[in-house]
Amino acid sequence: MTESRVWRPLTRRRDDVDPHRAQSRVAAYVYGNVLVLAAVVGTSPAAVDSGAAVTIVVGTVLSTYVAHVLAHSVGALFTGGERRELRDAARDATPVLSSGALPAAVLAATALGWPPEVWGQSLAAAVGLVRVAGIGLVYRRLQADVPLGRALLVGAVAAAVALVAVVLKLVLTH
């Protein structure tokens, strides 16, 4: 019974999401998590200890959300698109916002004294990496025709590529 309570939300399929919108939500999910992961890994232990890392993660999430909505709305803005298109873009970008919630909470707890800086920062980074690795399950939930094995493989590859992206960002911008 416990297994079904844990597994069911991960495998329950949504039939109400258009494939194009599902892809947009998955893109927002990946993009948000990769940028949050880079923000978490790129902060100093002093920033983690002082709580500044929380501000960095929240700032990353908010600015990424606005940029993502803008990027997906600009066509509608030029063509006089419907208000619904803008609303859909804002809704489909919501995974960007959720990408930073748990890492920010972990970093906030760390700033308050538990766990220690290195552990808190590592845990916040692990949350982001696990979320990226879970992308196959997220997509499978939105689009029922994806086999479980493929979903897990795509998640593992996405996590590996996310690590490469984070390393590139840190090496080239810090």
SSE layout and pairings?
Layout: H1 2-11, H2 19-42, H3 45-50, H4 52-79, H5 83-92, H6 94-99, H7 101-111, H8 117-133, H9 135-142, H10 148-173
Helix pairs in contact: 2-4, 2-5, 2-8, 2-9, 2-10, 4-5, 4-7, 7-8, 8-10, 9-10
Question: Could you write a compact summary of the structure shown?
Answer:
The protein is an all-alpha fold and 174 residues long. It is built from ten helices and no strands. 34% of the residues are buried.
Polypeptide structure, described:
With 174 residues, the protein is mainly α. The protein has one domain (17-169). It is 84% helix and 0% strand. The chain contains ten helices and no strands. It has helices at 2-11, 19-42, 45-50, 52-79, 83-92, 94-99, 101-111, 117-133, 135-142, 148-173. Helix 9 packs across helix 10 (148-173). The termini are far apart.
Low-confidence stretches: none
Count of helices? 10
Query: Helix amount, in percent?
Result: over 70%
* Number of extended strands: 0
Number of domains: 1
User: How is the main sheet built?
Assistant: none
The proportion of strand residues reads under 5%
Q: Structural class of the secondary structure composition? A: mainly alpha
What is the succession of H and E elements? Answer: HHHHHHHHHH
Q: Any idea what the radius of gyration is?
A: 17 Å
**Could you say which overall geometry the principal axes of the C-alpha atoms support?**
globular
Average pLDDT confidence is: 89
The N- to C-terminal Cα distance equals 48 Å
